[in-house]
Amino acid sequence: MSLSYLSKQGPAIESVFDDLAKLRIAVFRDFPYLYEGSTEYEKEYLKTYAHSERAFLFAVYDGEKMVGATTCIPLHDETADVQAPFEKAGLNIDSIFYFGESILLSEYRGLGLGHRFFDEREKHASSFGTFKTTCFCAVERINHPAQPFDYRSNDAFWIKRGYEKVPNLKATMEWPDIGETISTPKTMVFWMRKSD
User: Fold this and answer.
1) Alpha helix locations (H) across the chain?
2) Residue 162 φ/ψ region, left for φ over 0, alpha for ψ in the -120 to 50 degree band, beta for the rest
3) pTM over 0.90
4) Whole-angstrom Cα distance, residue 145 to residue 56?
5) Residue 79, SS3?
6) What pLDDT, in 10s, does the model give residues 97-126?
7) 16 neighbors 8 (Cβ within 8 angstroms)
8) CB 53 within 8 A of CB 89
9) Domain range annotation of the chain
């Protein structure tokens, strides 16, 4: 397997929107996201990253195909629905770096790329010298009928990376589940890690 790596920052991220949109739609179809995605929705969502000079993307390619990617952005540059729980909790959003997706096609898992994704994002966030905390959120699906019997959450991996789940820090995001055309609200729970 001959993989190559690509980093983009700020407006330059837009040059790989098509690849990133395809990958997000493919990976997020799986449980727990069950996302019925569209390229149009994806490109609109991803504009947030292209509009932030300090946003960062790290991608993995196998030949011409993007097989994995991860993004991050200062929380200050994120959308209001992502910022809202932090502001409500009285946290300073200017000191927090938000980690977006960390996605990888299943056949490329187990190669250490999940750790590489966190390493790259944490290095980017720390390069500014002003961010005290990194965070991300994950969808909360409790006793969902579509959960596979062999499903394993990423909680143990995230804890190993030094992240702590903050159960009272939640956001609501909307997307259509597989087979649906209407977006419905989903609860997203945040995980946080203080800088060393």
Assistant:
1) 17-27, 39-50, 80-88, 113-126, 155-160
2) left
3) yes
4) 35
5) coil
6) 999 999 999 999 999 999 999 999 999 999
7) yes
8) no
9) 3-194
